[in-house]
């Protein structure tokens, strides 16, 4: 039986896996500046699944939040402000400092931080912030009752915006803007609303699941060997990732009782936000010490050890930040309880 508790755990594993794919993507992008062996190119192509998997998971969890918690605007946006937007701004300042070798001080510097232009991957959080506003405002307009019809409209919006409308306003890429991802996000909503039917069908029809696994694998191979670069918002890539998402969902659901990785709120987000800082700092260190880094990427074993170092440092920092956030939450809760007690005694 696939309970909501198990599904949420499986989503955490998908998010964790996806965050590692994002790290691999930025590592291989750095390596491609110096060398391009097949395994580097292949990993770079496969890593693009990470962002789309995270997007679908975000849509699923948002739909779950609306239905299970029915948050008020204050509850919903205060949480996003504290746990999403503030770390995003901190990371924006950090990347400005690492890349510009100085703290932001001009209006343009702060504008770039807000727009997610100081780190190559921060566009995603800028887009997600737009989505949270849209999703909350339209939570009673786009519902389970009409999603099977509305999803086609959202598909059209994503396609038309990417191919005909976007003009690079404010120096922002296509990926910065919500319409480029809106169909992908609401696929997550639809998966949540129809999770019982979809998962029951896959559980009872193993041949279909096997076929989906084969098609997902074939699609990944196609993207690796294709001369065309399929970016994350490309609808062909989105559909292929959707199949992979369902396969991964069932895969983790059937192993969730045997996996003992504890859920930690914010872990995958912090890995996503701050992993590039280690890529920048380590690269600067190697340049300062050796004058160049081509020797590192030209050796497969050195490259793999370097990748493991980046992943390890990113996970360690993320765990420390999770601990710090939990500590601050407990302190804040204690202060609120103390204030209530003082108020009631008066």
From TrEMBL:
Alphabetically ordered keywords of this record: Acyltransferase, Cell membrane, Membrane, Transferase, Transmembrane, Transmembrane helix
GO MF entry, a single one: O-acetyltransferase activity
Cellular location(s)? Cell membrane
Q: Which GO terms describe its cellular component?
A: plasma membrane
Xref: InterPro entries: Acyl_transf_3_dom
Residue stretches spanning the membrane: 12-34, 46-66, 78-98, 121-138, 147-166, 178-195, 207-225, 231-254, 266-282, 302-326
| Keyword Membrane among UniProt keywords | yes
Is Transmembrane helix a UniProt keyword of this protein? yes
One GO BP annotation of this record? enterobacterial common antigen biosynthetic process
Classify the protein's membrane topology as the record does: Multi-pass membrane protein
| Domain of life of the native organism | Bacteria
Family note: Belongs to the acyltransferase 3 family.
What is the protein's given name?
Acyltransferase
| Native organism | Brevibacillus formosus
Lineage of producing organism? Bacteria, Bacillati, Bacillota, Bacilli, Bacillales
């Amino acid at each position: 039986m696939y309970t909501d508790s198990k599904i949420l755990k499986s989503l955490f594993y998908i998010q964790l896996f996806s965050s590692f794919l994002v790290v691999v993507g930025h590592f291989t992008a750095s390596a491609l500046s110096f060398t391009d062996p097949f395994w580097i190119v292949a990993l770079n192509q496969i890593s693009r699944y990470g962002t789309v998997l995270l997007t679908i998971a975000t849509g699923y969890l948002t739909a779950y939040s609306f239905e299970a918690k029915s948050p008020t605007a204050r509850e919903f946006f205060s949480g996003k402000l504290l746990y999403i937007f503030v770390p995003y701004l901190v990371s924006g300042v950090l990347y400005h400092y690492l890349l510009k070798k100085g703290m932001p001080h001009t209006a343009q510097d702060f504008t770039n931080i807000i727009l997610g232009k100081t780190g190559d991957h921060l566009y995603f959080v800028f887009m997600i912030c737009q989505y949270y506003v849209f999703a909350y405002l339209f939570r009673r307009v786009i519902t389970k009752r009409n999603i099977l019809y509305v999803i086609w409209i959202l598909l059209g919006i994503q396609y038309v915006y990417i191919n005909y409308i976007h003009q690079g306003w404010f120096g922002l890429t296509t990926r910065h803007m919500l319409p480029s991802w809106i169909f992908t996000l609401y696929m997550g909503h639809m998966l949540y609303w129809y999770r019982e039917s979809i998962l029951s069908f896959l559980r009872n029809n193993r041949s279909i699941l096997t076929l989906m696994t084969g098609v997902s694998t074939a699609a990944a191979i196609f993207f690796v060997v294709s001369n065309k670069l399929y970016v994350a918002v490309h609808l062909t890539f989105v559909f292929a990732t959707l199949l992979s998402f369902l396969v991964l969902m069932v895969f983790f659901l059937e192993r969730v009782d045997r996996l003992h990785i504890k859920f930690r709120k914010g872990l995958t987000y912090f890995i996503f936000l701050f992993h590039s800082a280690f890529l920048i700092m380590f690269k600067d260190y190697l340049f300062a010490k050796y004058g160049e880094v081509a020797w590192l990427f030209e050796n497969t074993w050195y490259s793999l050890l370097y990748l493991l170092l980046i992943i390890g440092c990113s996970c360690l920092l993320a765990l420390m930040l999770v601990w710090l956030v939990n500590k601050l939450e407990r302190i804040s809760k204690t202060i609120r309880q103390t204030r209530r007690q003082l108020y009631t005694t008066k």
